[in-house]
Write a structure and sequence with these properties.
alpha/beta, four-stranded mixed β-sheet, globular, 17% helix, 124 residues, 8 strands
Length: 124
């Protein structure tokens, strides 16, 4: 096998513009692609410098069910500050909680896709 990394993770959304505002304004990800294709709009965001992007897939692209993604882990250097930012933007956050592998919290995007934030414990 010669796999080097994941190219993108699909996040099914019902409204790409609303999702774009959340992922860029609240999570501060950057737009890496925004193209109109015959099948629909191809819209991707990612943290600066990341190899893997998130495709904000509208209903016309692939028939994915909005809000069906789960278990997406985002690493952060300051989970507490990020949780405060999410809460200030009106996003419900569970945690953060101290766990053997680090400090972790969970939240959902406007469509209900489940994401987690983790500040890893040093040396784990």
């Amino acid at each position: 096998m010669t796999i080097t990394h994941a190219s993108f993770v699909t996040l099914p959304v019902s409204d790409q513009d609303r999702a774009l505002r959340f992922y860029t304004d609240v999570l501060r990800l950057e737009v890496t692609a925004d193209r109109d294709l015959p099948q629909g709009r191809w819209l991707q965001v990612a943290p600066r410098g990341a190899q893997t992007a998130f495709t904000l897939s509208g209903p016309a692209m692939g028939g994915f069910e909005p809000g069906s993604a789960r278990g997406i882990m985002l690493l952060t250097t300051d989970v507490d500050a990020d949780c405060a930012r999410l809460a200030a933007a009106g996003t419900a956050v569970q945690g953060p909680d101290d766990l053997p592998w680090g400090r972790m919290a969970s939240f959902t995007d406007p469509d209900g896709n489940g994401l987690m934030l983790l500040t890893e414990k040093e040396g784990f």
